[in-house]
Amino acid sequence: MKKEKIYKLIDEKIRRLPPYVEYYVDYKRADDRAKPNTLLSYLYDYERFFGWLIEEGYHQGEPWEVPLSVLENLRREDITNFQSYLLRYTKMEKRSSRNRMISSLKSLFHYLSQIHEDENGDPLLKRNVMAKVEMKSAKKTPREQAENFKKSSLQISGRNRRFLGFCGKSLRESRSRLAGKRTCQEAFATLLRIKQGAGFGFHFPHFRQWLTG
């Protein structure tokens, strides 16, 4: 998407959001603290968040009319409800997508509570509920890594395909995160050798027995 179109979309989104969001965007624009694509993504996130506030009755009116007092009075439980909403009623099935949304909000709330000042030199936001929100890691579990192997686009067949299935099974059955990670790394390294036409480099007895059996 061309920059001109991105900037136009940014301006359109800003008009639908409270004035203090525009302060934040102007701050991010200064000295290129954020790329246009990133800012636009933030604004999509804020549009969803303020829309949710209206739907849930935190404010009677339009999204651009939501006062700072609404944000100040939010409790940790309210943010938990918003996170549940993202998981249940949006297409944000991946934790990484929900983490991005929460990260966007944390950035806005931090700016309002720590950086922007009113005419008296006081922060605009007196209480920052997002400071209490921790984001869970979006790292894949051994089972998810095994599924990625299954969906791999590497073109392999015969014994090599059976080897891939064997590695995936080993990964799913790993009892610890560390063991699963090691198996994943070892299998991936070998798959790269397969793709490049090289031989197997493992020296573990169960791999050797399986390959030669």
From TrEMBL:
Record-level Gene Ontology MF annotations: DNA binding
Domain (Core-binding (CB)) ranges: 15-113
Pfam families, per database record: Phage_int_SAM_1
InterPro entries, alphabetized: CB (IPR044068), Integrase_recombinase_N (IPR010998), Integrase_SAM-like_N (IPR004107)
Gene Ontology biological process terms in this record: DNA integration
SUPFAM superfamilies, per the entry: lambda integrase-like, N-terminal domain
Entry keywords, A to Z: DNA-binding
Record keyword DNA-binding present: yes
Identification of the protein by name: Site-specific recombinase XerD
Species this chain originates from: Caldibacillus debilis GB1
